[in-house]
């Protein structure tokens, strides 16, 4: 089976930059910050394919050519998607279920929790995400979340996804913001790409205010073959 791990687009999949002032300099213009590139902390390709993934390999999936929110170009073969919680961090353990519930409310997909990491299609976890910046000019940008996806480029079928929140950095934001980061990362794990900055969408990079919008809902429903 031909497989492709979406590592290059991690930069685009990375979410939200939190601007943490450098201790020795003041922040002059937070929005001038650089994009943080993430690196995978553990490799999802070392796991055997789930039964769902193996079945998915043979089937060609249709991806809509236009969409209210940009699409990555792949999706899960079934609208029933399994998720495994791989974190002991309490705040992350709270944020992802909120995000799962919100995406399920779109009725485009149904994410459900399972206890087997091996069988899960989506893994949600916490980890240290890379921090970049330049203390000489007084800013440090910290990546709050990232999502790594594995898909079959021939069939457009997703095989696995792993969404990571940086628990340590998310201690400094409020709960709603954390929920939005989790929603954004799961949006990537479902096949949505980044929305332009002026859109009403949870998929805007560096989004700090918006949850899942009507456009996000519509895009996901289109992607999964619903109206
Ligand atoms: Zn993103």
UniProtKB/TrEMBL annotation:
Residues 88-225 form the Peptidase M10 metallopeptidase domain. One of its GO terms (molecular function) is metallopeptidase activity. SUPFAM superfamilies: Metalloproteases ('zincins'), catalytic domain. Keywords: Hydrolase, Metal-binding, Metalloprotease, Protease, Signal, Zinc. Gene3D superfamilies: Collagenase (Catalytic Domain). Residues 1-25 form the signal peptide. CDD domains: ZnMc_MMP_like. InterPro entries: MetalloPept_cat_dom_sf, Pept_M10_metallopeptidase. This is Matrixin family metalloprotease. It comes from Limosilactobacillus alvi.
